[in-house]
Amino acid sequence: MNFELSREHVLIRNMVRDFAENEIAPYAEQLDITSAFPEEIFKKLGSLGLLGIPFPEKYGGSGGDTISYAIAVEEIGKACAGTGLSYAATISLGSAPIYYFGTEEQRQRYLVPMAEGKTLGAFGLTEPNAGSDAGGTQTKAIEDGDEFVISGEKCWITNAEYSDTIIVTAVTGKDERGKNIISAIIVPTNSKGLTITSPYDKMGVRASNTCEIVLDAVRVPKENLLGDPQKGFKQFLYTLDGGRISIAALAVGIAQQALDKALHYAKERKQFGKSISSFQAIQFKLADMAMEVELARNMVYKAAWLKDNNKPFTKEAAFAKLFASETASRSANQAVQIHGGYGYMREYGVERLIRDAKLLEIGEGTSEIQRLVISRQLGC
Ligand SMILES: Cc1cc2nc3c(=O)[nH]c(=O)nc-3n(C[C@H](O)[C@H](O)[C@H](O)COP(=O)(O)OP(=O)(O)OC[C@H]3O[C@@H](n4cnc5c(N)ncnc54)[C@H](O)[C@@H]3O)c2cc1C
């Protein structure tokens, strides 16, 4: 067993860290205030090849592994969690399903531009009445000649306004037991009948683009069906398993930022004639934060390693997502506590971490759903 990062992993970490510290972190507070999407940052991420890390070069990627990708998410998320969320979503939810399940033609046509950073990608699963229970999808795709006619509504879809295509889940029929068959279909965002708006005023991850999508008899060719229509549900569960590794990596970035800021502040701030870092109550908070960050990162790397080695990783991805997101919330909360009243003020940049971290306990399966996934893996 070897716990050391490879030379390539260290190189990617240093490169992304440098970029994130210089080109993302200085804008994070403003992006949070204005809730503006960082288009320019994404253009640069694209030109550095960072939007294609886990895909082969023949699909416009850089041929990296899931560990490299997780390292990049952590570093970007540490600088700005909203940017990190959009980064993780375009790769894990927009591009990856096309790489996993797409035909060669679909990969060339849709994956290559995303991996090269020419457009972002989005995945539309959630609906107003189908969140944790994705089996309750109401959006329908009805066959009409060579086309699907899709009608329905999706909510809180990350990146849709900046994507050329959205992968939309829809009911395409019934199986022999009378249960809905849910398939994934690639829908170009310039399709007639498709409306994308971003009406949400979010608590955190405010730099990410979050959209409402209305599909009103949207026609797409049948060849836009992604993967096996009978296995649409299984396919998106696999997609979400992969996505959870990246959400966990994003949580590690937030937790590490909380620790770094709290440690720095604790050494500077003096009360009762001493640095507050000399008080055991503060030291123990920092010790717990450091231990949990380390553990969460190891869980991310293990899940990523299992995926890269084609081993089952559903349980470990859920472990990582659950533990890392709750770690991020705890660490952010303690960072504010260590900053005292200053931590409650926006300019210190720690209250934002609490707001950003909370999303990671909800998106890509809530903490309750992660516990369900884990208990099912245990055979319950
Ligand atoms: C900023 C943001 C970005 C997002 N991006 C995307 C995206 O790109 N694509 C996409 O498809 N979706 C996206 N989502 C949606 C997200 O995945 C859902 O919000 C999430 O899956 C939970 O669904 P829900 O909000 O409907 O909650 P609900 O399912 O209504 O859950 C409400 C509460 O009930 C609990 N609960 C539900 N079922 C059970 C159960 N069986 N046992 C125990 N507890 C249960 C939940 O854990 C939660 O606490 C995004 C959401 C946000 C906020």
Automatic annotation (TrEMBL):
Cofactor (UniProt) = FAD
Its taxonomic path starts at: Bacteria, Bacillati, Bacillota, Bacilli, Bacillales
Q: Which residues form a coiled coil?
A: none
* Gene3D superfamilies in the record: Acyl-CoA dehydrogenase/oxidase, N-terminal domain (1.10.540.10), Butyryl-CoA Dehydrogenase, subunit A, domain 2 (2.40.110.10), Butyryl-CoA Dehydrogenase, subunit A, domain 3 (1.20.140.10)
In this chain the Acyl-CoA dehydrogenase/oxidase C-terminal domain maps to 231-378
Q: Which family is this sequence assigned to?
A: Belongs to the acyl-CoA dehydrogenase family.
- What organism, scientifically named, is this protein from? Priestia taiwanensis
- Specify the superkingdom: Bacteria
What's a Pfam family this protein contains? Answer: Acyl-CoA_dh_M
Q: In its UniProt entry, what is this protein called?
A: Acyl-CoA dehydrogenase
Query: Mind telling me which PANTHER family this protein's record contains?
Result: ACYL-COA DEHYDROGENASE (PTHR43884), ISOVALERYL-COA DEHYDROGENASE, MITOCHONDRIAL-RELATED (PTHR43884:SF12)
PROSITE patterns tied to this protein = ACYL_COA_DH_1, ACYL_COA_DH_2
Q: Where is the Acyl-CoA oxidase/dehydrogenase middle domain?
A: 122-218
Domain Acyl-CoA dehydrogenase/oxidase N-terminal: start-end pairs:
7-118
